Structures are given as C-alpha cells and as structure tokens.
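Input (structure):
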C-alpha cells in the first residue's frame, strides 16, 4: 500500500477556490466513509482549514487519480478547472509534506502552532470514523512526535512574527509576570482579538476591552474572562491599566496626553506600557514623552517582527534537517511491512517443526526412554529440520552460480565463512 497526500493550500489556490473545497466539520465523517468505499482507498483522513484542504490516504498502487476524481465529484467541481490548483504527493513526499505542515513550515505565518492542533483533530475524527488503519495511524503518531521535536529542538515558534504577538512579547519583557497586571485593549477587531488571545495564553491578570460598540466589546471580553466598557469610559478606567494596546479605525486620537497624565497621577506614577497599532494613530505622540510611559508604535513593532522572522527562518533550516531524518525513519518502517508476511510464514514453519519434535520427545519420555537420550535426539532432530531447507537451497544456489543468494544468506544469518 502507498501513502498519498492530495490537496490545495494558500500557496496553490486563491480563496475563492479554497472555500469551494472546504469540508464542513460535521460532514467530514460521512465524507471519509464515502472516500474509503472507493476501490483504491484503504485508509483516509481529511485536514480542512481556512488555508488548506488536504486528504491523506492509504491507497493501492496508482490510486491517486481515483482520489482526485472523488475529491472533484464530492465538491461538484469540474476536474479540469480544479486540477491546476491541486498537488499530489506520493509516499516519501507525502510523509515530508505532513511533517512540514505539522511543524508550521508550510503555513502562511512561518512556525505558527495552530495547524498541529488542527491535524490532531483531523486524526481524531478519522479514527472515530473508522478510516484510520495501521499505516495512517503510524504516520500521524510519527507526525505528532516530529512536530514536538521541532518545537523543542528549534526556535521555530519563539520569536514574534505578528503585530499581536510582538505587542505581547514586549509586554512580557516589561512585566515579567503578567498574572499580576491588567491590560486595557482599545478596539475589538481581529488584531485586538489576537492580542487578547495571546495575553490570555500568557495568563494576564485582567482584560478590559473598550470599543465604540459595547456589544462587540462585551462579546470579545467574555471570551477571555474580561469586562467591556465604551470608549467614553476609558478615562475612568485608564488608571487600572498597566498595559494599553490600541487598534481602532478612528481618524482622531483616542488617548491624549492630558488623560494619560491624570491616570499616571492616580497610579502614583507606576509605569504604563502602551502599544499603538492603529494607522492613523490612536494615542497622541506626545504621550510617549511622559515619564513612566513606554509607548511603541506599529513601526517599532515592525523591527521586532523582522528580527523574529529572520530567527524563524534560521530555525526552519534546522527543522528541515530534522524532517529529512524523520522521513527516512518512517519510510524504513513502511518498507519493513513488506517483510511481515515472510517473517510470519518463517515463524509458523519453525513453530510447526518445533511442535512436531516436542510431541515426539514427549511420547518417548512417556514410554520410559531415558531423558538425556530423548533431549539429545530432540536437539539433533530439531536442528536438522530447521536447517534442511535452507541448506538444500544454498547447495542449489552454489550449483547454479547464484553467489548473490549465498551472500544474502551470509548477511541474513550473520555468518562468517572461511575459504575452503
């Protein structure tokens, strides 16, 4: 059986194509069952995210076209129109692909960790659907192990490569223990949501979300155990904030120098860390001149992001080296499956000879023959029977000039021969 990875992602297909081939989560189990009902498909798992849709299958030889046919028909797409966007990776290329994906090397944001969780969910869904067999089970377990090794042995996820991540990274540098501090987030868009998520993951003490629309602020705050206020309430709460991160679409500043000075007095000049991600700026530049204020703009963060990206790119080279080795390990295991039936037949034959010899020896003991004679005969008989067939084949190989078979026997039985 071969392994096949078939799919498309943000590198090969625009969003209008990706959205047409996305699998609704509640429909994946049924889709998997339908997929493995195909003659050429023995095992299957589906990874479907906003940036990629991929099928990982255990297939019969040349099963790729049948999988592609199913993929196109399932989504009711014309084969010729979708084919330019689809990639197919067989065997070692499939193994390399899933290891790179799980390690964050094939992601829109290099090194992002979310994809590993999505792959784990894909495995769980397929396992529950009964479409995971020996080969894919081993592949996914190997994938999880390698992704963990990449995270542990490289700095692939250690550096900030997004505005949100960079803002929180700076917060941790200024306030080492975020659990003792309060963050005021101004705005409720995607960037602020990411900031809130990163802060929550780093165990921030409290989160306050301020937004022009209170209901939107409340929805976001509730997700992270915080509370919501309107923009007009910021002056009353500003003194509570050790960290202020702002990202709105306002054309005028939200925070001025006067409001921040008042908050500092009420805080008895305990320092405040501020990040203004907005363009135009939400925080007046003059605020940065105040003592006890650490104000960063989006341009300041870009330097951190650029440095973080360089760090991740260097780590990615190390990760690729790990993956090279691990692909070879997995393919070695896969090739070893070809010998399983031979090993099983060899063992069965040896066990049958053993059982026959043992039965004969037991009968002789029961008849009263001396034990030492019975044991000697058992050893001789079992040895002769076990080596009879290989000896006969080796003699015939010598007669036929099959030195390759003789050399293979020496390697197989770990023999050291001497010249005649």
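Output (sequence):
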């Amino acid at each position: 059986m071969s392994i096949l990875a078939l799919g498309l992602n943000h590198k090969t297909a625009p969003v209008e194509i990706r959205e047409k081939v996305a699998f609704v989560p509640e429909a994946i189990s049924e889709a998997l069952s339908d997929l493995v009902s195909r003659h050429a498909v023995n095992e299957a798992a589906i990874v479907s995210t906003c940036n990629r849709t991929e099928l990982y299958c255990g297939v019969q030889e040349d099963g790729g076209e049948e999988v592609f046919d199913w993929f196109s028909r399932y989504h009711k797409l014309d084969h010729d129109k979708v084919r330019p966007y689809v990639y197919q990776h067989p065997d070692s290329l499939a193994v390399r692909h899933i290891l790179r994906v799980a390690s964050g090397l094939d992601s829109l944001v290099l090194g992002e960790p979310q994809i590993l969780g999505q792959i784990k969910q894909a495995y769980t869904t397929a396992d529950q659907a009964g479409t995971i067999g020996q080969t894919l089970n081993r592949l996914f377990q190997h994938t999880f192990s390698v992704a963990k090794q990449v995270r542990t042995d490289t700095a692939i996820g250690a550096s900030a490569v997004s505005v949100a991540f960079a803002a929180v990274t700076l917060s941790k540098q200024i306030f080492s223990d975020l659990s003792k501090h309060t963050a005021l987030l101004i705005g409720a868009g995607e960037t602020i949501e990411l900031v809130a998520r990163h802060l929550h993951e780093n165990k921030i003490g409290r989160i306050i979300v301020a937004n022009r629309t209170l209901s939107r602020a409340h929805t976001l705050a509730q997700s992270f155990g915080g509370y919501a206020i309107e923009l007009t309430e910021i002056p009353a709460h500003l003194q509570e904030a050790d960290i202020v991160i702002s990202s709105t679409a306002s054309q005028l500043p939200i925070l001025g120098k006067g409001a921040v000075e008042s908050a500092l007095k009420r805080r008895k000049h305990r320092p405040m860390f501020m990040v203004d991600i907005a363009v135009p700026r939400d925080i007046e530049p003059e605020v940065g001149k105040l003592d006890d204020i650490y104000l960063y703009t989006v341009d300041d963060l870009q330097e951190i992001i650029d440095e973080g990206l360089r760090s991740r790119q260097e780590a990615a080279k190390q990760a690729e080296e790990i993956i090279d080795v691990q692909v070879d390990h997995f393919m070695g295991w896969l090739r070893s499956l070809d010998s399983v039936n031979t090993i099983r037949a060899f063992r069965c034959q040896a066990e049958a000879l053993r059982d026959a010899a043992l039965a004969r020896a037991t009968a002789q003991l029961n008849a009263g023959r001396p034990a030492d004679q019975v044991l000697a005969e058992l050893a001789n008989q079992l040895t002769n029977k076990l080596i009879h067939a290989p000896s006969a084949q080796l003699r015939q190989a010598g007669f036929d000039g099959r030195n390759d078979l003789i050399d293979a026997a020496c390697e197989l039985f770990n023999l050291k021969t001497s010249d005649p």
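Notes: The chain has a mean pLDDT of 92. Residues 5 and 93 are 8 Å apart (CA to CA).
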